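Entry 14: structure prediction run for glycine dehydrogenase (aminomethyl-transferring). Input pasted below.
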Amino acid sequence: MSTIFEKSKPGRRGVDLPTRDIPQEFYEATELGAEYSRSKPAELPEVSELDVVRHFTNLSTKNFSVDKGMYPLGSCTMKYNPKFTEDLARLPGMAGLHPLLPQLRRGGLLAQGALGVLYETEVLLKEVTGMDAFTMQPMAGAHGELTGIMLIAAYHRDKGNKKSIILVPDSAHGTNPASAALAGFEVVTVPSSDEGVMKPDTFKEYLTDDVAGVMMTNPNTVGLFNPYIKEIADLAHAKDALLYYDGANLNAIMGYAKPADLGFDIVHLNLHKTMGTPHGGGGPGSGPVGVVEKLEEFLPVSRIKQRQDGTLFLDYDQPKSIGYIAPFYGNFGVTLKAYAYMLALGGEGLKKASEHAVLNTNYLRVKLAENWDIPFNKICKHEVVLSSSDKVEEYGVSTLDVAKGLIDAGFHPPTVYFPLVIKEALMIEPTETEPLENLDAFVEAMTKIAEAAKNDPESLHNAPVTTPVGRLDEVGAARKPNVVLPE
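Run finished. Output tokens:
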């Protein structure tokens, strides 16, 4: 596909600028000096409006999105996002609000609607998780993790505890140890058992008096719910360690289990995964953090509170707060979409979403097991992890080859080479929004790839062949990106 510069033709115009209405003498008086002026005109493409519209429309079709097809990224939860929430986020009364707009002015309720959305979203999230209080400030999942770890540090600092270690199971999300380390803690990894989960006996070996907290994803990154979670929580609390819930996988248990009831003290949620708002492409995200009562006083400022007359205000009187985590109120538009999503589905709808997510995943698990190795082939939750290790050994076909083959089949590849506890991993999460025919089409594509691995491995080594460019040097592109047009 030609670049917009290659389509440029001298003298072709795509815009008709209006006549300048500034007096000539004023324009001349304010003209920039030579030191601020270009030595030659900017090298901009000369194209018509039709050229521009067709170029970028055609370019947009080259990009894969969840609106275009199935996006089975395990852990990242790329499910379809309802369009009505997008419309609501664009309502002028919401999209046009300035964050410095006064909360109350001369009796008028200028920002009460936006504050109401934030306040009521907190109420709904408390119901979903069982937590006692929330902050909506964190702007992504990892940002929520950092906030949660800072809350753990504040709790122990307030009590005078000298604790320096955060325990993280090897089946946790990759950002967990990074967040803990960024907050100044030493990270210790706890190995999983042959069941695919962290077991209490192993946990005890690592649980010392220096442990400040434990970060867990439950279900974990191999899609398994830890049945020992309550025992683990009790062991941690006996040492005055806090239990942190990475809520990225809440989509699997929403409506069935509340993190607070499982023994967790802190939770972050990914509204851009669980609650139907867009995820990927660099944002925007939202990672609100909930806490049990004993940690509420450490939450970031400001807190949204309600007066006796029903009006809402921002409370900055929080002397033990960890301070600001993000400017103003976080990603408000994402919160608004999640709020609308929860109101539309209601409690039963959110529960159904979890049911269908788990059902879709186990349907794929059973179907794919006919041709693929599944290290933990038992009832799972929201995602299932395959391994291509046998195909590497027998046919020389790697997980990367499989991923590229899926592109030619019309599917975005799943997450690859993660979690690290499974070699040659393919991490698949269909989400609740994919219908049966899409799941069957994915199974068919994976079956054909398994056959190609055996009978024609070279075809997978050369994949993809249906894209504008063939297989790229991904390491080279990441380490030495070239984003400049050739001379």
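Notes: The radius of gyration is 26 Å. Will compare against the previous run tomorrow.
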